[in-house]
Amino acid sequence: MATDRTVSTTWNGSLLAGSGVIHEAGSGAFGPLPVSWASRAEEANGKTSPEELIAAAHASCFAMQLSSLLAKADTPADQLETSATVTFQVGEGITKIALTVCGTVPGIDAAMFSAKAAEAKAGCPVSKALAAVPEITLDASLS
Amino acid sequence: MPRIVRIAEVTWEGSIARGGGVATARSSGAFTLPVNNASRIADPDGKTSPEELLAAAHATCFTMSLGSELARAGTPPEHLDVRCTITMDEVEGRGHQIIHSAIEATGVVPGCDEAGFAQAAEAADAGCPFSALIKASATVSVTASLEGI
């Protein structure tokens, strides 16, 4: 079954001097969130940006995929802490995403956890959608 | 050109089916959001999902690209509205995949006609870093029209 998720934005004025807002998401989970070019390209200053939203999408997709793979291997996770760091080079685009995970997973060894994390990184839908990013790294450890 | 880094973190407790997580915007502190699998693939029930976050990213990225293209063409916008819908589906033999991003843009742009606006939207799609990336697994469609015409 296909799922659709919709978000709308409004921008007023020029790119550099103007500003925008991400309206309340279809789910109702967030928004309105203010955005501006300065907060995207310089200090975040409390405002989110496309790159931070991509980081949140990737970190959450990766966590779900890894949780699913660990359960299938009969070593379900108690807790997974993931992060995604997205690097944006103005004029070039998104050049790197660094994924990290620290897991509390009873009955698994470090080698198997690393293997499952690598499988989750390769297979999660957001990784597949962002496969054109030049470098996606992974750092996996058990707590 | 500056190198910009943005970080988000997720803490997930329990299984994929019954567990859940919280996604936090670490760089800006702009959001802390619950996520779980049921709300991702079925009814959102007030929770966001990776796909909704990508829709927010694409809408925002495209909006900034479009504003930039219109300014470059000598017709800076007064106001732009951009809506993005991301579709995820199960693809035979490949599991869940993000297959489409639909962008709908409208604007109030003094001195710009429909053809100029459509041209700027096409250039924005070509120039938006997110549009370029997501084409690895998804198609991107863009519709653009001026408001009040």
What does the largest sheet of chain B look like?
Answer: 3 strands, antiparallel
Question: Which regions of chain B contain 5 or more consecutive residues with pLDDT less than 50?
Answer: none
| Alpha-beta classification of chain B | alpha+beta
Question: Could you tell me which chain pair has the largest interface and how many residues each side has?
Answer: A-B, 84 and 88 residues
The Rg value of chain A, from CA coordinates, equals 17 Å
Query: What is the global morphology of chain B?
Result: elongated
How does the overall form of chain A come out from the CA principal axes? elongated
Give a brief outline of the structure.
The complex is a heterodimer of chains A (143) and B (149). By secondary structure, chain A is α+β, with helices and mostly antiparallel strands.
Written description of the protein model:
The complex is a heterodimer of chains A (143) and B (149). With 143 residues, chain A is α+β, with helices and mostly antiparallel strands. Chain A is 33% helix and 34% strand. Chain A has 4 helices and 6 strands, in the order E-E-E-H-H-E-E-H-H-E. In chain A, the strands form 2 sheets. Chain A has a 3-stranded antiparallel β-sheet with strand order 1-2-3. Chain A starts with a strand and ends with a strand. Chain B has helices at 37-41, 50-72, 114-127, 129-134; strands at residues 3-13, 20-25, 32-35, 79-91, 95-108, 139-146. In chain B, helix 2 (50-72) crosses helix 3. The radius of gyration of chain B is 18 Å and the shape is elongated. In chain B, the strands form 2 sheets. Chain B has a 3-stranded antiparallel β-sheet with strand order 1-2-3. Chain B has a 3-stranded mixed β-sheet with strand order 4-5-6. Chain B starts with a strand and ends with a strand. By secondary structure, chain B is an alpha+beta fold. The longest helix of chain B is centred in the middle third of the chain and has 23 residues, at 50-72. Chains A and B meet through strand 1, helix 1, helix 2, strand 4 and helix 4 of A and strand 1, strand 2, strand 3, helix 1 and helix 2 of B. Strand 1 of chain A pairs antiparallel with strand 4 (79-91) of chain B, so a sheet runs across the interface.
